[in-house]
Amino acid sequence: MDSAAIAQQRKSDYFRPSVAIVIPTYNEEPADLERCVQSALSQQYDGVSFVIVIDDGSKDKRGITHIKEKFSGVSHLSLHEFPQNKGKRHAQKYAFDFFGDSVDVMVTIDSDTVLAPDSIANLVLLFADPKVGAVTGDVRAIKQNFLSTLIDARYWTAFNQERAAQSLFGTVLCCSGPLAAYRNTIIQKVKEAYVSQRFLGQFCTYGDDRHLTNLILEQGYTVHYERRAKAWTYVPQKIKPWLKQQTRWNRSFYRELLWTLKRVIFKRKYQNIYMVYDLSMQSILPILLLASLLFVCIKSGSVWPSSEAAMPIFGPGRRCSSCSPCMRFAISFC
User: Fold this and answer.
1) In Å, how far are 46, 75, 84, 267, 334 from 51, measured between CA atoms?
2) Are 231 and 113 in contact (CB under 8 A)?
3) Poorest-confidence range of 27-41, 88-102, 156-170, 244-258?
4) Which residue among 28, 201, 278, 300 has the highest number of C-beta atoms inside a 10 angstrom radius?
5) Predicted pLDDT at 272
6) What is the pTM (predicted TM-score) of this model?
7) β-strand partners of 223
8) In a shared domain, residues 219 and 299
9) Are 71 and 188 part of one and the same domain?
């Protein structure tokens, strides 16, 4: 299908793929979960759409109980509860199995996400191209304090620069958890591989979004970013939870980087030149950063006064620490 035919199909009133919006939840606050579900149910989309909420064995049942009471009469909303926690992937797979081949597009969102009213309508347009396997939207942070404002600025860069550049070549490397859409025929092919991923003999319990995106790319489909599909998500409001989140994300980033590089090098997958360039930069830049930190430490140690020479400056009994703080920073960065 050429670009003109794709554009014509997007404009056509007949292109309205059926959609299932999948919302896994775990210990979510009732008000936040209600806002998420309400935004999913209130989509201005003319096609057939369904919403399913899967409670992943929450210890705090207030959220799912509130949803049952609040939306009890909504026919296109389904609810399911796991008796115990299994993880986000298994909650999503329950939805994938539940709908089977009955829908065209699977949209996955986090339970603290708030969708814009036209998010789904804008997101599914790109699936008019049969080569498109997945699409992610423009996710912004809900700004509540200075830290969340900084995170929101980082999100703008991550989506409107990084993912936008990748999208030009159809190689977005991660469909974001707060808003991502997948062609269901591919989901049905890869869902078992998705939930059974192992790393160093252990089942993977994080990095879900990036791995599912990698599985779509591995099937030979393109992945894109649609800036008109908007969503907002809650982010950590304090440094400690934010650092925990970033640690988890970086672990999954490097694990998936190894997974992807292996397929590029040994299996000759993903032969798009920009993707190879992007992966190369992502592999090299952390090493260059660490090397530059060590270089600064070494150079500062060579010009910094010795402990004896520093005594007149720092006073008796106090020692110059040379570059040890810098070294500790470099080690912690690793």
Assistant:
1) 15, 10, 22, 38, 41
2) yes
3) 244-258
4) 28
5) 75
6) 0.83
7) 134, 171
8) no
9) yes
